[in-house]
Amino acid sequence: MSIVLRLAWRNLWRNRRRTWLTAGAIAFSTILLVGWVPIQFGAYDIMINATLRVFPGHAQIQRPGYQDKQKIRNTINNAESLATSLRGSNPLYTGISVRAQGFVLLSSGTRSYGAQVVGVEPKHEGGTSSIPGQVKEGRYLSSIDAQEIVIGRALARNLKLKVGDEVTLLGGGKDGSVAAAILPVVGIFKSGSNDLDRFFSEIPLHTFQNIFSMGSSAHTIVIVGKSVDEQTKLISALNNAISDRSDVIVLGWEALIPGMKEAIKIDKVSGFIFLGILIAIVIFSILNTFLMSILERTREFGLMLALGSRPKRIAGLMMLESALLTMIGLVIGFVIGTALVYWAHVEGMHYPGVEELAEQFNLPDMSRIYPQMKIFNFLLGPITIFVATNIAAWIPILRIRKLEPVEAMRTI
């Protein structure tokens, strides 16, 4: 085996230029693959965290079926007590707030619009939503039982309202009664989403419960964790915390925002197409290298066959050369790619102008992308290249099995 290994290594350097060109192509592709996958998944984490931070949260506790049919009667009993028991019980929870929500008709002096009104805990809402920090005019809600409302900028424009004006709220209560109130507008927010700003409003939770005859019940308990990477641990911890209650369930962000999950899947497909193109380039490089090598060494192979070497042994020698050549490129590319990704993980990849956007919409700092440092992300590209190139090498190597010693030795 040591003799075969030495022969394969020697044969690689019979044409140094071609060997280095092929190894360079493999190394370049490996650098791109090692860097692309962690950066792509790191960008997903930032996008998901920023989106969930606006309002939905990483997870929610709800009554079964509420996500599909958000009826006002489908409530969680003693929601505030449950939320209080969760706060501080696990370091995975960085923010917990109780919400109740309904759909109403909001009216100003001359205009009326359908809108969603959400009852929130002003003290805790800032830990699960960026909306409290997005109030551009006036202020946010002062206390959990204050008689006041904050609305989106587009909704305020449509209703021709400004801070200090009163708005009439009309809807249906939990018990079937009419829910009605006149509330002063104390704040106008801009969330960054035109759709949200066009129909969304918030009032204190106890005010909502009084208007809609909710008692001490609510619709959701929103939980924000440290990051999407710990989503599995977060869901598991929440399920353990509510194991004694059969009337509620835990939903992760994938169930809360299925559209985002599908969008990420589509983007991953486009990313893997790009990776596939890179791998195809490497495959053709290695294929060309070994095809040229076999054509140049046909006479040598004929002599080896005439001296008694079996085609299988020669093919094994060529496969070993393929593996060595691929490993040279992979090692060089993996070392350089890993070093670049580690630097990006420490320093972050800066995107100018995003700081202002994040500050404007009260989102976490998105100006830098930090690659997702997972072993799978680093090894996916190199392993795929190694397997694909060695499979591709079999195509020219199969020519050896068809060689006739006499005809091969006559080749010039």
Fill in the keyword field for this structure.
two-stranded antiparallel sheet; 12 strands; 15 helices; six-stranded mixed beta barrel; alpha+beta; 412 residues; 53% helix; 2 domains; elongated
Topology:
Blueprint (H helix, E strand, L loop, with lengths): L1 H11 L3 H39 L4 E4 L16 H8 L8 E13 L4 E9 L1 H4 L9 E4 L10 E4 H7 L6 E7 L5 E12 L4 H6 E5 H7 L8 E5 L6 H11 L7 E4 H4 L1 H39 L1 H9 L4 H37 L1 E2 L3 H7 L7 E2 L5 H23 L7 H5 L3
**Overall pLDDT:** 84
The string of secondary-structure elements, in order, is HHEHEEHEEHEEHEHEHEHHHHEHEHH
Main β-sheet description: 6 strands, mixed, barrel
- The whole-angstrom Rg is 32 Å
Characterization of this structure:
The structure is a single chain. The chain is of the alpha+beta class. It has 2 domains: 200 residues, no CATH class; 200 residues, no CATH class. Helix content is 53%, strand content 17%. It contains 15 helices and 12 strands. The strands form 2 sheets. It has a 6-stranded mixed β-barrel with strand order 2-3-8-5-7-6. Strand 2 and strand 3 form a beta hairpin. The longest helix is centred in the first third of the chain and has 39 residues. The protein is elongated.
